[in-house]
Amino acid sequence: QVQLVESGGGLVQAGGSLRLSCAASGMIFSSNAMGWYRQAPGKQRELVAIITPGGTTNYADSVKGRFTISRDNDKNTAYIQMNSLKPEDTAVYYCNAVVTTGRRTRYLYRFGQGTQVTVSS
User: Fold this and answer.
1) Of 75, 65, 83, which is closest to residue 22 (Cα–Cα)?
2) Of 67, 61, 117, which is closest to residue 90 (Cα–Cα)?
3) What string of DSSP letters covers 23-62?
4) Contact (Cβ atoms closer than 8 angstroms) between residue 76 and residue 2
């Protein structure tokens, strides 16, 4: 059974930084692209960053230049470094294995509990 456990969230002032971690188990981590999603109150879940098994990254325009996704295949863990945080980054952040077909990216497994990021102004 695949498990995804996110951690590292918290309360930070605007302009601050956080690093989130996603520990994955029950799947062949190194073979999967990984994505970070976020969901703000009253909004749909949004995909913000993807990293392929080979390390190629892609970002939503809203986070480009501020967030960096990475992975450690030895630790079965994905990360997202978030800098220059803004109040609009406030959300619950989730990770998942993803697959991209053309312009569409879909997640593969049940989401974990996520980790709350709150950015105060």
Assistant:
1) 75
2) 117
3) EEESS-GGGSEEEEEEE-TTS--EEEEEE-TT--EEE-TT
4) no
Question: 61-70 pLDDT, tens per residue?
Answer: 999 999 999 9
Express each pLDDT in 22-33 by its tens digit: 999 999 999 999
Are 22 and 33 a contacting pair, CB within 8 Å?
A: no
Matching residue, tokens 């951690």: 7
Question: How far is Cα 69 from Cα 56, in angstroms, rounded to an integer?
Answer: 10
Alpha carbon distance 53, 78 (integer Å): 11
* SS3 assignment, position 40: coil
How far is C-alpha 12 from the chain's CA centre? 17
Token pair in block for residue 121: 């102004």
- For residues 64, 46, 57, 33, the Cα torsion angle rounded to the nearest 10 degrees is 170
Structure tokens at 31: 């073979």
Report the pLDDT value the prediction gives residue 66, as an integer from 0 to 100.
98
Q: What angle do CA 5, 91, 60 make, to 5 degrees?
A: 90
Residue 25 burial (C-beta neighbours within 10 Å; 0-12, 13-18, 19+): exposed
